């Protein structure tokens, strides 16, 4: 731009001014008018320069207008220059946004986008980084041109369509290429280490059959806590997409949202993420099963699937869904609504599988062996629902939470229903096959190990049973019983009721024995087993010392009854009826005959007891020894006194050993063989 002509000057020395030609005056007026227009309309120095350039196109003389209408800041304020530069840049940007890109910029962008469209097999984000950046810049220009309207809007629309179609493909490729798969081998190793319930300790691979022995005597209340201590996947949040791809995905998503292609973006994004999450569930072993399919599965296989569901639901929520929420927040940051909608859409398959299996299990046929697994499922879901509330929010998110809370409630109902069914099984079990040796009944072992397992879930069961607590309190007993029951937790009251069902059933089974003494042995064995299982576990804390003392009293009573039934008749043969005054004395042949008869009857009775009761079993060493001591304390002194007084009367000469068959020491050795569950030694030393 040429410099404007110099203004006219007056005559030096204060004389009259030099006359100015009329043409010059006219030029000055035109310039002044143009300068005034520029000053009035221009909002910045850049705008003034643009206006001067336009005006000079009409008249070259107007190019002499200066743009110093917007003076530079004073050197005394250095910060002002920076602020003005920032303001000018912002204003210029606003103007560009309002006016749209220049035609030249748009045509360059159009050319680049069309060029990429001629090679559909090529991928922008696999090209050098600069190429991807240039393509995204071209897309920005096309979107801006479309938004600005004008004569190029139709062309811009077509270019944007081409760009969006490519960006969809690029998004799909990036998401698939950079998806991070779950480590299947690691997960399955974790599953093998995880033995989530302790029903395995009870050998409940088949349905409850009290006639089937269960030899496992492990501690289920400690096994479960140990088994779930270390699951490395519970709290590990996975990067579902490699971090280096997230910025590129977000760049694509931002432009699709700006261009009005949010629905297309959501469709592509959700379809890919849904499929990938389904694959993750498959790795975790969480299968898509209908209610009918679950109902038909054998318990052994259903048990395995329930274990995997418990493990899977924690991993899904804490790793997969948490990672998915984070990915949605990063990639779809341009639209809050789209971000939430896509998260729910992507994860609805996971939620559906969790929900459908939970519902299917909740409506399964009630059977005792399922209770532990159902409780595991209930606790796992209850544990993650608060975490899910942090992931799902808004109207649709609230619906997801309500659905899962419904599943939780139905699982809780299944727990309560299964407990009721278990009580009915105990009351109605009517096997008629007695334990031949009076040992612990398989039902007793099963039930007590089962109840010990339930104590592991005491907090959950207390909460679930609290609403039915009043129904668990049996008011038929004494005031002391009622006060005791009131002092228990809801689970404690239910335990008392279930054990009372077991005890009543055992009482009926004891009547299958014709021998009253064996009835007592059977009752002692089973009652002691119950007491030991209570005392050595958390059941002891729940039921308290009062309950244990009453059962120990019952054992003592049975012990006394056994001695009375089994040994009263034997001891009656050792009573001194005044037949003689001592060794060698006699009151006649009749008295001697009666003494011989007593020894003979004692020997027959003792031999019969020995033959039968050596086959009886008292598994507990302490109880077995206490019974033998009690027998010895009653029998040996009486026998020693009787033989000492009358032995020589009937056992001399040719009759040696015929009537006095045992010495007191022999008798004591024989008593030591009782309750061992096998025939005693054949050659105990006898009196010679």
What keywords describe this structure?
25 helices; 688 residues; disordered N terminus
Contiguous low-pLDDT stretches (5 residues minimum) are 1-25, 70-82, 188-208, 210-216, 218-223, 225-234, 581-587
Radius of gyration: 49 Å
| Biggest sheet overview | none
The helix/strand order is HHHHHHHHHHHHHHHHHHHHHHHHH
> Distance between the terminal alpha carbons, to the nearest Å?
149 Å
Oligomer class: single chain
Q: Work out the strand percent.
A: under 5%
Mean pLDDT: 81
Q: Which class best fits the helix and strand makeup? A: mainly alpha
Number of H- or I-type helical stretches: 25
Shape: rod-shaped
Percent helix: 55-70%
Please give the number of β-strands: 0
GO molecular function: phosphatidylinositol-4,5-bisphosphate binding
Keywords: Exocytosis, Protein transport, Transport
Protein name: Exocyst subunit Exo70 family protein
Function: Component of the exocyst complex.
Describe the protein in words.
The protein has 688 residues and is mostly helical. Among the domains are: 103-178; 262-416; 425-466 and 479-562, no CATH class; 567-577 and 591-673, Monooxygenase (Up-down Bundle), CATH 1.20.1280.170. The chain is 68% helix and 0% strand. The chain contains 25 helices and no strands. Residues 1-25, 70-82, 188-208, 210-216, 218-223, 225-234 and 581-587 have low confidence and may be disordered.
């Amino acid at each position: 731009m040429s410099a404007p002509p110099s203004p006219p000057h007056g005559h030096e020395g204060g004389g009259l001014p030099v006359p100015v030609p009329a043409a010059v005056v006219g030029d000055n007026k035109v310039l002044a008018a143009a300068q005034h227009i520029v000053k009035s309309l221009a909002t910045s120095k850049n705008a003034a320069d643009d206006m001067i350039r336009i005006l000079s196109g009409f008249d070259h003389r107007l190019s002499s207008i200066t743009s110093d209408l917007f003076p530079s800041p004073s050197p005394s304020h250095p910060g002002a220059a920076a602020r003005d530069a920032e303001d000018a840049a912002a204003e210029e940007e606003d103007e560009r946004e309002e006016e749209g890109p220049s035609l030249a910029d748009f045509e360059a962008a159009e050319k680049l986008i069309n060029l990429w469209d001629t090679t559909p097999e090529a991928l922008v984000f696999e090209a050098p980084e600069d190429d991807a950046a240039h393509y995204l810049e071209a897309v920005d220009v096309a979107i801006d041109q479309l938004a600005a309207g004008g004569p190029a809007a139709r062309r811009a629309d077509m270019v944007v369509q081409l760009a969006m179609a490519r960006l969809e493909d690029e998004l799909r490729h990036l998401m698939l290429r950079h998806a991070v798969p779950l480590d299947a081998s690691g997960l399955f190793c974790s599953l093998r280490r995880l033995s989530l319930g302790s029903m395995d300790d009870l050998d409940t691979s088949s349905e409850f059959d009290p006639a089937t022995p269960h030899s496992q005597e492990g501690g289920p209340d400690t096994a479960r806590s140990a088994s779930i201590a270390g699951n490395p996947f519970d709290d590990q949040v996975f990067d579902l997409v490699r971090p280096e791809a997230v910025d590129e995905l977000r760049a694509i998503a931002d432009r699709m949202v700006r261009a009005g292609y949010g629905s297309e973006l959501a469709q592509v994004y959700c379809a890919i993420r849904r499929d990938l999450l389904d694959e993750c569930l498959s790795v975790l072993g969480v299968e898509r099963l209908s209610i009918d399919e679950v109902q038909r599965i054998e318990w052994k296989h259903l048990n395995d699937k329930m274990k995997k569901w418990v493990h899977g639901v924690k991993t899904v929520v804490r790793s997969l869904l948490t990672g998915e929420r984070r990915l949605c927040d990063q990639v779809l940051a341009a639209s809050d609504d789209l971000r939430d909608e896509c998260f729910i859409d992507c994860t609805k398959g996971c939620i559906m599988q969790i929900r459908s299996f939970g519902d299917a299990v909740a409506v399964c046929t009630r059977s005792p062996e399922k209770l532990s697994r159902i409780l595991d499922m209930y606790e796992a879901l209850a544990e993650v629902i608060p975490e899910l509330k942090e992931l799902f929010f808004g109207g649709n998110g609230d619906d997801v939470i309500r659905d899962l809370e419904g599943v939780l409630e139905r699982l809780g109902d299944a727990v309560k229903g299964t407990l009721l069914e278990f009580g009915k099984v105990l009351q109605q079990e009517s096997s008629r096959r007695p334990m031949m040796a009076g040992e612990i009944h398989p039902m007793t072992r099963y039930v007590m190990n089962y109840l010990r397992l339930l104590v592991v879930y005491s907090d959950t069961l207390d909460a679930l049973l609290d609403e039915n607590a009043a129904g668990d309190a049996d008011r038929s007993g004494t005031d002391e019983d009622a006060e005791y029951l009131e002092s228990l937790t809801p689970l404690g009251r239910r335990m008392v009721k279930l054990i009372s069902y077991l005890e009543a059933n055992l009482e009926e089974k004891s009547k299958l024995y014709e021998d009253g003494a064996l009835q007592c042995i059977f009752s002692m064995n089973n009652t002691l087993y119950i007491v030991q299982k209570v005392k050595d576990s958390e059941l002891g804390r729940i039921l308290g010392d009062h309950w244990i003392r009453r059962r120990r009293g019952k054992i003592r009573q049975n012990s006394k009854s056994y001695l009375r039934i089994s040994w009263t008749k034997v001891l009656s043969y050792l009573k001194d009826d005044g037949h003689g005054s001592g060794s060698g004395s006699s009151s006649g042949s009749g008295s001697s005959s009666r003494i011989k008869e007593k020894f003979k009857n004692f020997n027959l009775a003792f031999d019969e007891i020995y033959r039968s009761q050596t086959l009886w079993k008292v598994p507990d060493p302490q109880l077995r020894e206490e019974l033998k001591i009690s027998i010895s304390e009653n029998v040996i002194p009486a026998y020693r006194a009787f033989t000492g007084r009358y032995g020589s009367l009937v056992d001399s000469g040719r009759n040696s050993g015929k009537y006095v068959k045992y010495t007191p020491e022999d008798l004591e050795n024989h008593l030591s063989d009782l309750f061992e569950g096998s025939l005693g030694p054949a050659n105990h030393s006898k009196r010679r």
